[in-house]
């Protein structure tokens, strides 16, 4: 039960419908809490639906508390360290950032029962529930990693921006202090204009009036367009790299799960992963038809498929691959391939297949050996089927001859 609950709470398999239902429910509950937090600040709605908001808040806290306790309970299923007491594993897991956020969501409510707390403080803590979305959003998690990985570059950009802000305010102080002492009478006062100008907001309540001040103001506007775009460029470039890295890691993991490649070195797997495309098909989908031109080779990550040969069907399960014989021998499909269940596949297009096999003869030899063995098995099945049919015809003809 704990292992199954771990899959639903933590593993998050996309092919597992209870995991999908749980994630959808929790995301909906978090969004509903954020909406209730905002609507409750409307006096008319708070007066009309105050009891409803209170009950919804209590039910939400109970659900979040059960979720927190369940995650603490199942976390030992993820640990690979043997010999460590369960309580220590759970303590280490409870100290992770996602779990600390979950604790901050429920703890103020329970403390408020025993310790008098200002309701305004409790209301602020309710807003923390929105942070729980980070657990269910890979994009938010990726963005957090980007900000952490690029922290030095972002810090450098902020220092440059701060220096430009101080320089702009100082220049305008020197140029405009005598004409507009109320707006530019000091460097801190001039910073308001510098910040509004550098960020291209331009409120217009403070503007330079001297010729030199206007020239300096135009230069500050130009600098602002470039300097304040630095953090955006850093984050966007880092985010793109993180997405590519995550896609590569996911594809790498899927390729490494295929038994065919388990004995190959990391470089070979990495090069192969660059050519593979993930695909999910539902039960009953025809992946390839007999007589079609061979356009790809398939690796079955999960699910079950059936190859319908004239001598009988063949079923393949997780870790198998198919479609290689038509590519190796450059001929049309010899069987119709149908998904019996929902299947996760990796496809290798014919052009990439030929190019990869030319560059990696060891992989080609392995695939060719498996293909030859499959051909031999198919011939044996065909001969056995032919002998069986001949025997049946002989049995049917024998009584007639007597």
Q: What layout of secondary structure does this protein have?
A:
Blueprint (H helix, E strand, L loop, with lengths): L1 H10 L5 H23 L3 H32 L11 H9 L2 H18 L4 H8 L6 H4 L1 H12 L1 H26 L4 H4 L2 H12 L12 H17 L2 H27 L9 H8 L3 E5 L4 E3 L7 E7 L2 E5 L2 E5 L4 E2 L1 H5 L7 E4 L3 E7 H10 L1 H41 L1
Antiparallel strand pairs: 1-8, 2-7, 3-6, 3-8, 4-5, 4-7
Fold and architecture overview:
The protein has 402 residues and is α+β, with helices and mostly antiparallel strands. The protein has helices at 2-11, 17-39, 43-74, 86-94, 97-114, 119-126, 133-136, 138-149, 151-176, 181-184, 187-198, 211-227, 230-256, 266-273, 324-328, 350-359, 361-401, and strands at 277-281, 286-288, 296-302, 305-309, 312-316, 321-322, 336-339, 343-349. The strands form 2 sheets. The chain has a 4-stranded antiparallel β-sheet. Strands 2-7-4-5 form a 4-stranded antiparallel β-sheet, with no helix packed on it. Helix 1 (2-11) crosses helix 3 (43-74), helix 2 packs antiparallel against helix 3 (43-74) and helix 8 packs across helix 13 (230-256). The termini are far apart.
């Amino acid at each position: 039960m704990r292992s199954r609950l771990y899959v639903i709470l933590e593993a998050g398999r996309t092919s597992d419908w209870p995991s999908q239902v749980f994630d959808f429910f929790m995301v909906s509950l978090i969004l509903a809490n954020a909406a209730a937090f905002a609507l409750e600040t409307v006096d008319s709605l708070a007066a009309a639906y105050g009891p409803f908001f209170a009950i919804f808040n209590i039910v939400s806290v109970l659900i979040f508390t059960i979720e927190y306790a369940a995650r603490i309970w199942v976390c030992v299923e993820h640990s690979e360290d043997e010999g460590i007491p369960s309580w220590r594993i759970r303590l280490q897991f409870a100290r992770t950032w996602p779990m600390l956020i979950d604790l901050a969501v429920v703890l103020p409510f329970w403390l408020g029962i025993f310790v008098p707390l200002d309701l305004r403080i409790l209301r602020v803590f309710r807003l923390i529930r929105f942070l729980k979305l980070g657990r269910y959003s890979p994009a938010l998690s990726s963005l957090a990693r980007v900000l952490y990985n690029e922290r030095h570059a972002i810090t450098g950009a902020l220092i440059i921006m701060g220096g430009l802000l101080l320089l702009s305010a100082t220049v305008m102080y020197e140029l405009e202090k005598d004409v507009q002492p109320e707006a530019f009478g000091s460097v801190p006062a001039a910073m308001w204009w510098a910040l509004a100008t550098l960020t291209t907001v331009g409120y217009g309540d403070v503007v330079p009036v001297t010729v030199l001040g206007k020239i300096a103001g135009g230069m500050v506007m130009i600098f602002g367009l470039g300097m304040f775009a630095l953090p955006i460029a850093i984050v966007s470039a880092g985010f793109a790299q993180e997405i590519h890295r995550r896609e590569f890691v996911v594809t790498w993991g899927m390729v490494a799960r295929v038994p065919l490649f388990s004995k190959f070195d990391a470089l070979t797997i990495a090069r192969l992963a660059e050519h593979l495309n993930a695909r999910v098909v539902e039960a009953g989908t025809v992946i390839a038809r007999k007589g079609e031109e061979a356009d790809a080779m398939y690796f079955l990550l999960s699910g079950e498929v059936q190859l319908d040969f004239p001598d009988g069907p063949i079923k393949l399960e997780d870790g198998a691959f198919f479609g290689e014989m038509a590519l190796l021998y450059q001929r049309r499909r010899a069987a119709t391939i149908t998904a019996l269940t929902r299947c996760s596949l990796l496809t290798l297009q014919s052009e990439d297949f030929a190019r990869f096999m030319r560059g990696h003869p060891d992989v080609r030899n392995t695939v060719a050996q498996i293909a030859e063995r499959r051909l031999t098995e198919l011939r044996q099945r065909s001969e056995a089927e032919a002998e069986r049919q001949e025997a049946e015809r002989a049995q049917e003809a024998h009584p007639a001859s007597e």
